[in-house]
Protein 1
Amino acid sequence: MALKPAQVLIVVVAAVVLLFVSLNWSLLGTPIAVSFGFAHLTLPLGFVLLGFTLLLVAVLLAVLLRAQLKLLATHRRHSAELRSQRELAENAESSRLTELRQYLQQELAALREEQRGSEQRLREEIVNTGNALSASVGEIDERLERHFPQVPARQP
């Protein structure tokens, strides 16, 4: 796993601080006079540096926490917007599908009606053709009867 640049920087700074503390260990335990403006105290130098370091870490953690909370709030807002946009898209798609279904049902109904009309016309044509055929057969029958008044006997 490769180290990120920020991780390398933290390791380098920690190494420098540890080197500084080890080189000046005898001075860190030496008491010094410290003025806080409202009070004067005599404290070891290491304790003062540790206190400032802890204060700095607390401030940095507070800033980091605030940034994380802002990111979390932004993420939640974006998630809510994305969810609402997704719902809008689904509703739009649903309405398009409903419109398509209605259109197809109308077209299918029109095709069925057209098919019924075609079937009715076909039936009428068949009836007319049957009538014309019957009339033709009847006419041929009459002509045959005029030419041959009696049916010829069958020959064995």
Note: The longest helix spans residues 45-147.
Protein 2
Amino acid sequence: MSGAAKRPGAPASGARRPAVRPALCALFALLVFFAAAASGCAASGGPASPDAGGRADHRPAADGGGRVPEDGGAGESGGKAAEPPAGQPAPVVAEARLVAVGDIMMHLPQTRSGYDPGTGTYSFHHFFEEVKPLLSAGDWVIGNLETPLADGDRRGYTGYPEFNAPPELADALKEAGFNILTTANNHALDRRETGVLRTLENLRERGLVAVGTHASPEEAEMVTIVEKNGITLALLAYTYGTNGIPIPEGKPYLVNLIDEEKMAADIGKARAAGADVIAVALHFGNEYETMPNAEQKRLARSLLEKGADIILGSHPHVLQPYEIADVGREDGSRGQGIILYSMGNFISNQDRHSHDGKPTDIGAIFEIGIQKQMPGGPVSFTGVRATPTYVHKYSENGVTKHRVLPLEAVLLERHDALLTDKDYARLEGDLAETNAHLAAFLPESPALAGASAAP
């Protein structure tokens, strides 16, 4: 093709032959046309416009929605999109990842482990150093903050049964990659109204979004919507109760309680506000039970039918299997939703020895891939991945320390100086057991064929 393109403009080597030149020009024009058409088929169009902190992608939309690959990882969407007509750009697809973990607790041994007596300050960054790459890879990174951060409280820092942790915990969470924390749980009122308000202040001062508790009635009426890469996520959060501590009279806005009528109304408000995906965080279920109870299943399904897309469960302190549910929605449509019944403990001082063998030291980092054909949709899920984690307790200078380890990576690398051969052997069993347990509700080849967020 390059030779033909050059010849019409090249100087003649002998006598001019006018009859040949028009023919060559015509041939050149045809070649240029076909080259442009071929180039147009491969092009992805102009650059997308990601938001300030996100990414955009130009891959063709999946045919019929996304799927969970057979290895359980969050991979490329299932199916291959049809090629666009010649000369037309491929559709632009925006993508984002929701990363979620379970309970972030602060028992007194954890608080002590972050204290520096030389400076009188706290630091908890060591909790999350090993899992920071997994967390920071998410666009929305969500955890359940199950402790007030009510610094200045006259009772000081405490653990169970009424928690209060240093606000430096929020610094460590942000540095690890978290940007959203749910605060509606049974420990929300451990330091009463002052604790709720001061926790919100400490989180917001650090640029963290808090969901489920509020400083005013006006805040309680607002729906939290966070946009990443052109995809909007609405996040709602509710708890079954507050450990018998009454919500102050006339101030029900302080903590969101599970109330199906209110939750349905909030889901409707979120969709009306333009949310592409609606995630509902529920603090529910029975502590230390490794399978969801009937009420968890009923309520989760009910919220999907009302228009929610993802359920983020916490409170049992152990992992429960997750589910990809096919539901008929109240608007007459059908769709699929993702139910994480319990994401377990992410960080705590609990372990099997102190809880009758219950795996309270095992959690998971869940990643849900979301994509949206731009502009305007549709929106679909591209996969679910669960990465099991382990809270490792070790001694340093006579102080018990805590860190969250990603089990698979630790077992593959096997060069952690703080782990023994006996530790590795035990963790191998933990990983196999956890992977099998998490997949208990999934088909043999889990798939999100056609899985879409509600329109």
Note: The longest helix spans residues 20-42.
Protein 3
Amino acid sequence: MIERDAMPPRPWHRVQGTIDASTMWYAVMRKRERGVFIGTLVLRHTDHHALLLRRGWEEVAPHAIQAPRREAPSG
């Protein structure tokens, strides 16, 4: 089982947000810079969100960033 507060394995970084952050209000955005992706968490439907989209950032679907499920140990 994966602990919710466990840090993701390298090279990944935890996406920081408020305790009530949901994909209804927030979007995870990414942009490729110098061969790597940079990312940020932004409120949807705001001027900042629109600006990032105009500058080539893209939204990342929630299912693409969730932690992989691990199978329960047998026995």
Note: Helices lie at 47-54, 62-65.
